[in-house]
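Revision sheet: structure tokens.
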Amino acid sequence: MQREFLINFFLLLFVNLLVKPLFIFGIDLGVQNRLPPGDYGLYFALLNFAYLFQIIGDFGLQSFNNRHVSQHPHLVGKYLPTLLVLKVLLSGVYIFFALAAAYCIRYDKRAIGLLFILLLNQVLSQGVLFLRSTISGLGYYRLDSVLSSADKLLMLLTCGLLLWGLPPRYLSAESFAWAQTLASSAALIAVSFVLYRRMPARMRWPDWGSRRWRNTLAALFRASFPYALVILLMSAYTRMDAILLERLLPDGHHHADVYAAAYRLLDAANMVGYLFAVLLLPMFARLLAQGASVRPLVGTATRLLWAGAVTMVLLTFFVRADLLLWMMPERADSYRWDVLGLLIWAFIPMGAIHIFSSLLTADGQLMAMSRFFVVGIALDLALDLWLIPRYQAIGAAIAAVCTQSFVAASMIFLCFRRFRWEFPRKIVGSLAAYGGILGAVGMLLFAQESWPILYQTIFFVALALIVAVLFRLLPLRQVFVGR
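Predicted:
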């Protein structure tokens, strides 16, 4: 299973690195630079507002379906139709409640119209993820890896046409959102066709009016509730910062815009962490169903993620000013790169959360996780209310790093207690030594102003690869040999 994870992870990483960075830095960044100041900040705040309510539309069905199909693939034809109906009903409720909440907190007419488009996009994107969870649950990991970038590939076409193929007067936050709607719709159709061709048996559509179907629908709704609670709580402490920035400050659009620029890089990095979760959840579920040990897979994933996360975070921290000057030559200033220099450190605990929360989810330890997520929400809210009025986006970045670190430590603690693992002194020592060596070398290397920044970056990445191999953080032997 470790070799299967590594092969599929590198395939998934390769596919996503081909497409998603082009969208993030080519399309999304281009739109932010061309929109009037503050417009992208409004778009970003509303996008995070839509994320807060997305649990109503998903209700944990994606995670429940992935785990259930991984453990009982022969039942997919029986339960998938009912889950699809439940998904459609919940999506309608999601749009209604999110719009009602936006009206209650007095968003203006333009904001509510833009929010509606973003909510529709979330419904389509969640539909793609739900169907992909069935594909990966059936064991088609490599096919799922290829499909993982289908929506972003199509967005490169639709949004690229809007950005470079049409006159500038057609570009707005609304047209940017509609271009994503078109791409997500096409991706949903494509993934539906692929899943239909890979189904192990024909789907058995139930008698919609029968008592038995209604009981099955209610049972699936109850079974997915713990997954819904976990996703709701995780979304809350992850997405509150941008919303509170926009709401708490008089010039909130501007500060949300600054935070969005830094968050874009964190989100791009977190793409790698999300890939871990996508692959690990069905693999953990299958290993647990077979009664096999999950610790070797956890160790492999942790070492691999640590090597990548520490390298990326340190590099971003050292070159943050040059990076933002390249990304936003007309808007970059010390405020923006200070926010980035702080916020990027959240990626390390976020990566750990992806690994250990996936294991706890596969094991059904959802309520135990939820208790710590509730504390994380309270911590994030308290820090935001205290820090944002004083330090604006810098305060939001500090709150994000502190909250993510607390939640990561909680997930690790739960896993060690649940599986009765001993403290891995040797592994922890290797991880700490790797981070210490790279940090010390980076401080010396990037202090040399006579070196071009490109040469410094290449040298730093090459050194990171060498040190990672020496400390056995890159399991190349397992990929090529299988042991």
